[in-house]
Amino acid sequence: MNKILLAMLAGATLAFGAACSNAGNTNSNTASPATNTGGGNTATAHTSGTTGDDVPAIVRAALTDATSVTTQHKDLSASQVSTIERETNTKIKDTDHHSYLGFSTGNGARKQTGAATVVEANGKQMVIVYESRNGIPYIKEVRAEGMPQAFLDQFKGKGHDDKFQIGLDIKANGADDQTARAAADAIRQDAVIMQTLYGGAHSH
């Protein structure tokens, strides 16, 4: 079973994936994310301690295997914001992107168990859990109270290259049209941000 493989601690800066443990993962299609050598993930990173008030309860609930959760902030550059907004046809409200890294300790070793982000759409908070496939962040699951699970399940396995258009790629599946469109836009924007900040270089 694929582990949630996210977030990278490289040198003095945190980045999505290099420190993730891939021990025991027998799926050759899933590996620790690689450093993006294309320059797309050059952003200022800073972290704040272990699980505390800055970690939303929905994140702790999603990172079930974690004994501690660290908040990581990465600042998007003006050029990154421009590119992401153009690609997703959305507006970025905050250039300080938050992600939450889950860790557990076993047999004297500390390892990462997962990572998540939180986005908001039409007044509803959604937690997105990512996994890595050959260094590329993909959505493992999306959770949100008050939203149909049949709608949220459609985002599983999607990444920044996938389409999220309501009515074509994603069905409302019980969500009202306005919320469904806002959610799809927010999730796609976050997927593109995650690739920009943490994803490894790859060809299309």
Keywords:
204 residues; alpha+beta; 6-stranded antiparallel beta sheet; two-stranded antiparallel sheet; 4 helices; 21% helix; disordered N terminus
Structure, described:
The chain is an alpha+beta fold and 204 residues long. It has one domain (8-198). The protein is 21% helix and 30% strand. It has 4 helices and 8 strands, in the order βββαβαββββαα. It has helices at 57-62, 78-88, 149-152, 177-198; strands spanning 8-10, 13-15, 44-48, 68-75, 96-106, 109-121, 124-133, 136-143. The strands form 2 sheets. Strands 3-4-5-6-7-8 form a 6-stranded antiparallel β-sheet. It has a two-stranded antiparallel sheet with strand order 1-2. Helix 2 (78-88) crosses helix 4. The longest helix is centred in the C-terminal third of the chain and has 22 residues, at 177-198. The radius of gyration is 16 Å and the shape is globular. The two termini are 26 Å apart.
Summarize the structure.
The chain has helices at residues 57-62, 78-88, 149-152, 177-198, and strands at residues 8-10, 13-15, 44-48, 68-75, 96-106, 109-121, 124-133, 136-143.
Order of strands, main sheet, comes to: 3-4-5-6-7-8
Overall outline: globular
**Mean pLDDT score:** 77
Query: Over all CA atoms, what is the radius of gyration?
Result: 16 Å
Count up the helices. 4
Largest sheet features = 6 strands, antiparallel
**Beta-strand residue percentage:** 25-35%
The SSE order reads: EEEHEHEEEEHH
N-end to C-end Cα span: 26 Å
Number of strand elements: 8
- Unreliable residue runs: 1-40
How many domain regions?
1
Helicity, in percent? 10-25%
Which class do the helix and strand fractions yield?
A: alpha+beta
